[in-house]
Prior knowledge:
Layout: E1 7-9, E2 14-17, E3 19-22, E4 29-30, E5 43-44, H1 49-64, E6 75-84, H2 92-103, E7 110-113, E8 116-121, E9 124-131, H3 137-145, H4 153-158, E10 162-171, H5 175-191, E11 195-200, E12 205-208, H6 209-215, E13 231-237, E14 240-246, E15 255-261, H7 265-282, E16 291-293, E17 299-306, E18 314-318
Parallel strand pairs: 15-18
Antiparallel strand pairs: 1-2, 2-3, 4-5, 6-10, 6-11, 7-8, 8-9, 9-10, 11-12, 13-14, 14-15, 16-17, 17-18
Helix pairs in contact: 2-5
Amino acid sequence: xxxxxxxxxxxxxxxxxxxxxxxxxxxxxxxxxxxxxxxxxxxxxxxxxxxxxxxxxxxxxxxxxxxxxxxxxxxxxxxxxxxxxxxxxxxxxxxxxxxxxxxxxxxxxxxxxxxxxxxxxxxxxxxxxxxxxxxxxxxxxxxxxxxxxxxxxxxxxxxxxxxxxxxxxxxxxxxxxxxxxxxxxxxxxxxxxxxxxxxxxxxxxxxxxxxxxxxxxxxxxxxxxxxxxxxxxxxxxxxxxxxxxxxxxxxxxxxxxxxxxxxxxxxxxxxxxxxxxxxxxxxxxxxxxxxxxxxxxxxxxxxxxxxxxxxxxxxxxxxxx
Length: 321
């Protein structure tokens, strides 16, 4: 199947964004390689090579914090990177001060060595590494091509010189909390460094600095900054609008779609955004026959079936007329 309109063709491993950009992916299975742990579960990582490398960076940092060096089969690691316009390592004093002032997160003890910082908050372990090289263009080119939230991403990201990899490790059942922690930490890094934005490779998300820092404020009122966690795809053809998500699987949920609705692309997107936010906020696991309430108290049924825009996965379709 040839995929059009800017979406991922899982069968051919291509992202089509006007023109076809081909990435070579591999599936990597890592066994128990860290002998410092009494037990380390076999883990299956993303098909994206770069994401796998980031996870390995996180694990190497985890080893450096011996007091917290315990993992379990239900562990989740949220990983992303702040794109920096210089090569300076993170100033830990400024970072921790910002984290405390903005979010009330006081870190009493941490491990810092050779451009890496490891510390614990709540029941999660945070691992940060200042890498003195840029993210390879091969990794961010496709996300930049579909980044409607950062329209100058191709130019801006090209200028970055280094990165700070952030990984937050905790239990799978606390995915939303892990993402909340990650987002607060990333925002604090953005505000204490010369940086342009954040890259979330698992979601194909590139997010500009200003938008990220503003969006994270939603957490103060109990709302969720879903634009920072999930990619929202939109297409329109022959007067019919469609939407899809990519990133809900990070929360153990099915991706969602709206297919070929006659409503405007703006209305379809607004409804879709509200639905995704509702699913995350209420931790809903939707199945065929369930209904969700959208704008104007309209009740809409959903269907669980093979994806249309995401044709290699099963998705929850909002049956919007």
